[in-house]
Amino acid sequence: MSKRELVQYKGHEFLKQRLVLSLLSQRAVRIDAIRADDTNPGLLDYEISLLRLLEKATNGTRIVISPTGTSVVLRPGMITGGHISMDCPVSRSVGYYLEALAALAPFGKEPMVATLRGVTMDNTDLSVDTIRTATLVNYRNFGLDDGVELRITRRGAPPRGGGEVRFVCPPVRALRPLRFVDAGHIRRIRGISYATRVSPQTANRMVETARGELNRFIPDIYIYTDVYRGAEAGLSPGFGISLVAESTTGALMTAELCANPGDAPEDIGRNAAQMLLAEIMRGGCFDSAHQWLALILMILGPEHAAKTRFGKLTPRAIQLLRDIRDFFNTTFTIKPDPSSSTVLLTCLGTGYVNVGKKTT
Amino acid sequence: MDTKQTHKAHRVRKSGASAKKTQKKNAEKNNPKAFTMQSSQRADRMSRRKAELDEKKYHVPMADRTPTVPPPLVVAVVGPPRSGKTTLVKSLIRRYTKNTLTEIRGPVTVVTGKHQRLTFMEAANDISAMTDLAKVADLVILTIDASFGFEMETFEFLNLLQTHGMPKVMGVLTHLDEFKDNKRLKLAKKNFKHRFWSEVYEGAKLFYLSGIENGRYLDREILNLSRFVSVMKLRPLAWRSSHPYMLADRIQDLTDPEVLEANPKANRTVALYGYLRGMHMRGGDRVHIPGAGDYRIDQTEQLPDPCPIPDKERKRLDERHKLVYAPMSEINGVMYDKDAVYIDVKKSRHEEKAEAGEGERMLGELQKVGTISDRLADQQFNLFSGAKPLTASSVRRPAESDYAQAVDSISKNSDTDGSDTDSDSDSDAGSTIGGGDGHETSSEGSTDESDSEIDSADEDDILRRVDALDTNASDDSSDSDSDDDQGVERLAPIHTASKRVNLMELVYGQKLEDKDGLAAGVSVNDNAKSLAMDTDLDEHKLRKCFITNPGDSEDEQGGEDEDEDDAGDFEDLEADSDGEQQPNDEASGTADESEEDEDQSDEENEFGLPSDKMKKLQNKFERLYGSDDEDGEKKDFYQQQKDVLQKYVDDTRLAMDELSSIDYRWAGEYVRVVIEDMPTEFIQGFNPYLPVVVGGVSNEEGLSLITLRIKRHRWYPKILKTGDPIVVSVGWRRFQTIPTYFMNDRIKNRMLKYTPEHMHCSAAIYAPFIQPGTGFCAYHLTRQHRFGIAATGTVLENSQAIDVVKKIKLTGYPEKILKHTAYIKRMFNSSLEVAKFEGASLKTVSGIRGQVKKAFGNNGVFRATFEDRIKASDIVFLRAFHTIPIKKFYNPITSLLSVTYMRTVAEIRRSKDMKVPNKKDSHYKPIERVVKRFNPLRIPKSVQAELPFKSKTKHVKTENGTSRAVVMDKHDKRVADLLGQINLLHKDKAKKQREKVQRQKAEYVKRRRAEEDEADARRKRKRKSFFRLEGRNQKGGSAQD
């Protein structure tokens, strides 16, 4: 009887997706040479927190970190879900952790109710607004409609954070195969412009310039201003904007920008709008920030063909495709569509069934 | 010839059974009034009943994944030994192909019709083989020896079928020629039929084979049977349509002979041939071979179908298309073996048995060719004349083990897709992308320090739109060639289609390292830079992406003005008309419908036809070509669900071409599957009579604790005990495991020592993941009882921890009793233990409840409070629950290799001839209870005096309690004596009288009985004479008549 071999990687890049794939495919993973040549070798605080979070969200997971912290072995257990709460380090926003949970939560044993505290928006990870208005909405393409919720109880801007979100996701037995190739045309644009511990007028200023940029293309724009006060506003001042464009077929294009110290709200609004336009122009049924989610959920679908269209494959999506092959032994067919300069991806689902979910 | 051919007209039957039948049928038609309903209530009830029956027919819709060219159906012929299985298979094969097989070994595939092929497999009489076959059979033919009756194998097999998805079952009664009496035969058939029905379902088909001719069943009866097989309809079974599987009909050993020579017990490389069923499969997939274990498929290969369905549509099957394929058995003297093809040169039986002559013996010697090493070992030669001849053994072979290792390593390297090399290259690639990323940012010297720090730390999440935007923009303005742009440009082929690059090669190709080294140019830009790029956005292109686009006329049908008015809905329609595809998501479903309606109204105008005529034409079209474009509203929910599933299947069929670049093997193909590292026993002990099933287990590999709902089989004579190992067959697997039975009492899972007799209970086992809802069946490996199936049930849950508890009672004794407080000893051994139980509830034998308070001292004594003062003689209980660890024992039954299995304690005792340990404490003894005597209640006088009258003890004196001595005088004494004497006499007289009466009575009874007897005898005599006379009279009378 041949044993299942360990999946092995080198380097700290793409750590999160590899850990997530390991848990979903139930294959052990070993990652070596994590920042081996760095002045600060080994895992960083947010990566350790991620490992801790994954341990909380699962049962039976064994994680071994070498004394130097430069190699990790994860032997996956079962995804359990349930109530999780964690204080995330402020080096990354909660979007970093939520992305991992978003891929795992539907396949848990119980509904997942995760409370994460930390920075809610920054310029490296998806902000909680985008996750709420786009990432979780994208679930519906896979048959996950009811009960998914992300509530932002407190906002926390970098550097000190102090925000809190509550993520609720019910488990599913199996997903629906994705058949989403028609990107459609952009029908409306929605957005949230938020500000914490700064003048409430800041949010309106961002909205104004963003609208000015987008109004040339479509009149149906509504950008909510969301100003948090007092204890709900976290520990640091900050503001930003998150924009979502929805197409006639339900494709969501997102862009977001968070202010760095010294940025003018007008610039943030305008830049975000232009980033959204660039995203729209790239086309596809999933924007570049959600290609990973689409790929993972496509591969976890039933044993039918799943097909979709991406604008341009991001380096991260390309690496995810390779990692998926390592973990699930499944490859995608990737075909260019010269007429719209997009990419068509087709795969056969692995027929993933949530074995942890109880039947009566 | 020139006259038109006339046929004899059909004459309708005017009498007989068939005429009567038509009369009855037509009665309703001829007199409809007589058959209308009489009561509305009844009609209502009938309609409800009908609705109920209709509802019962519904099954959860399942995707029917049967491929366009389906694989041959597996027909399992099952029955007890000597019930005619082989004869039946031979007869059927003879009927289909005109071939006679001398011996049936392994599966036999035959082309039986224009669209149908069958694979026959005979089940060996072995529970493992029967289990495996039950998992793959599409049709089961149960042979039953009618002269003997039903045997347990039949019932066991039916139970195996039921738990693994019930395929079609047909029964065949054989040995009917042994019934000489026609009446008894009829009765037997009827009884068999009804018994069979109660086991399978009412009306299940049972065939009768009445005799054997030329070693086969009668042709007529076999023809009937084959017709039934050909019209059979199958329902998809959930497990099989979601897993790939293959019934191997040929096995080949591909191991390098040199490796074997070095180590005859080396693991083999084995090729398994067979039709792939159920689902697609791919090299690198994980499979389970029941009886051999889990393996990774090294490679798969499609082979030309050995038994193809005739390509051209023909009226009937041509003789040359009636193929038979049975590589393991011998057809027309040709047999395929593991590593050779044998041709049997016919030899009659007596010849074989005859004593071999000189020449033949020599030939035989010559044929005994060993391996090269054997021959080398036998060889000897002289180096010098007169010296001792050298043999191979005397010469030391240089580093034999080294050689073997070398061969091993070669074979490993030749592995087509060694996963380790793959993953290495990938990871390298990954790191190059990411690493480059980080470097780029830092080298560029981005303006924002805090940003750059984070960027260099994280690469995997460079999903920022910022960078994507940048690459895109650079794409557009590719002529401006800064070094930064250079990098981006090199990456661009990965996503832009305009460049002629194979995307698959770029993403998955082997030459990744170089390519990705180039891709390292991706960078995260700060805002200012992205802003600069934004000005390059192609506004014309961008406008096309919005529904409000006015100038996009070339690829739209028209009606732009309307579009602008009506926002999104029309735009979607146009997207459809682009001819790309159909949107499938529900989100836009409603919008689509409304659009379609509008679409139709548009078309009416276009065709210029009046609407009613249009509708008529549309109806006609729908009638003729099916209603494809029917709206969802018209179909009921059930049909809708079915359609959705069908659509998925159709889409997958369409996508098969697209996926052809990936080496999927589809169901229905004849494939060769190569598996490496197969234990040598698989080849050496290969038995063609046992089925070899290759079942895909992609997502079911990790081990976990599994909760089962289990019920002891009602025919199994014993209940099952927790901790006794049992073989469970679930999914593809058969494995031995140690179950822990338990039952949930709504609060906790209480362990059960034994399964209940007639109820379901739960069981926890340790086994690989299995989908909840899958059926399973449990049995013992060695037959212990006449009926083998011990239990059946379903899988409920997979988890990593199951909390099964067992009650434990701790006892303690009071050491010191205060008012309501007592110090309890001997319950715990240390204060630490007490600390764990602080607050736990206690109870004494007499029912006084209490609570653990705190440890007292270090020796485990603790303070407890009670609701009342307890006694020194009381025993204090603490009722607690202890979690039972589930035994992690998983032992796949390797029946195709060598079987090692765990025995139950009872089995071990039996084999070692050990007695059950006799514990004296466990004996039941009569309970001796000492009657408790209570002292009378004494109330001190002083207290009594204080008591109120009501509560005072009352002393009631009795009058006749005492007897006094009487002293009589002389007269009194004489009187008393006289009276005594008189009394005595009287008593004696009365006694005599009583005896006399009894005697007389007995005499009377005796006399009476004698008289009665005499009277009876007299009466009897009289009756007899009377009837004799009467009889004589009648006889005489009749004689006279």
TrEMBL record, chain A:
It is found in: Nucleus, Nucleolus. InterPro entries: RNA3'-term_phos_cycl_insert, RNA3'_phos_cyclase_dom, RNA3'_phos_cyclase_dom_sf, RNA3'_term_phos_cyc, RNA3'_term_phos_cyc_type_2, RNA3'_term_phos_cycl-like_CS, RNA3'P_cycl/enolpyr_Trfase_a/b, RPTC_insert. Its main location: nucleus. Belongs to the RNA 3'-terminal cyclase family. Type 2 subfamily. This is 18S rRNA biogenesis protein. Signal peptide: none annotated. GO terms for biological process: endonucleolytic cleavage of tricistronic rRNA transcript (SSU-rRNA, 5.8S rRNA, LSU-rRNA). It holds the Pfam family RTC_insert. GO terms for molecular function: RNA endonuclease activity. One of its GO terms (cellular component) is nucleolus. CDD domains: RNA_Cyclase_Class_I. The lineage of its organism: Eukaryota, Fungi, Fungi incertae sedis, Zoopagomycota, Kickxellomycotina.
TrEMBL record, chain B:
Residues 42-52, 995-1011 have a biased composition (Basic and acidic residues). Residues 71-235 form the Bms1-type G domain. Residues 1-52, 394-495, 547-613, 989-1041 are annotated as: Disordered. It is found in: Nucleus, Nucleolus. It comes from the Eukaryota. Gene3D superfamilies: P-loop containing nucleotide triphosphate hydrolases (3.40.50.300). GO terms for biological process: endonucleolytic cleavage of tricistronic rRNA transcript (SSU-rRNA, 5.8S rRNA, LSU-rRNA); maturation of SSU-rRNA from tricistronic rRNA transcript (SSU-rRNA, 5.8S rRNA, LSU-rRNA). Keywords: ATP-binding, GTP-binding, Hydrolase, Nucleotide-binding, Nucleus, Phosphoprotein, Ribosome biogenesis. Residues 417-427, 446-461, 476-486, 552-579, 592-606 have a biased composition (Acidic residues). Belongs to the TRAFAC class translation factor GTPase superfamily. Bms1-like GTPase family. BMS1 subfamily. Signal peptide: none annotated. It catalyses: GTP + H2O = GDP + phosphate + H(+). One of its GO terms (cellular component) is 90S preribosome. InterPro entries: AARP2CN, Bms1/Tsr1, Bms1_N, BMS1_TSR1_C, G_Bms1/Tsr1_dom, P-loop_NTPase. It comes from Coemansia guatemalensis. SUPFAM superfamilies: P-loop containing nucleoside triphosphate hydrolases. This is Glycoside hydrolase 2 (Mannanase, beta-galactosidase). SMART domains: AARP2CN, DUF663. GO terms for molecular function: ATP binding; GTP binding; GTPase activity; U3 snoRNA binding. Residues 1-14 have a biased composition (Basic residues).
